[in-house]
Amino acid sequence: MELIACVSKDILDLLPLFMANRQAEAARLRAALVARDWACIRDLAERMYAVGNPYGFRQVTTLGRFMRQACFEQNVQALMDLINAYTQYLSRVAVIEVEAPAPAKPSEKDDARPTE
Fold first, then answer.
1. Per-residue pLDDT tens for 50-91?
2. CA atoms of 106 and 10, how far apart (whole Å)
């Protein structure tokens, strides 16, 4: 498991809240699994899938994708293993500060008006 997250300098100030939300998410996943609340697990897994990469935490996205699949299969053992891996990841991940990517320049195609 990759234990390094490359976080852009321009969002480092958001990191404490991001990590607190991920910790709370792990606890909610555990509770939802105990309750067999498949909709909640699916929603949380989809949130993980969506937020990991933009913040530089590729492994969160990967785990979210695997959890979503295990949820569809209602595979309790796989979900337990994935939640445990997620908790361990959150406690061990190291953050590396990276430069923010340059903003994309609009292309001429973006400015073109549709023809009828």
1. 999 999 999 999 999 999 999 999 999 999 999 999 999 999
2. 21
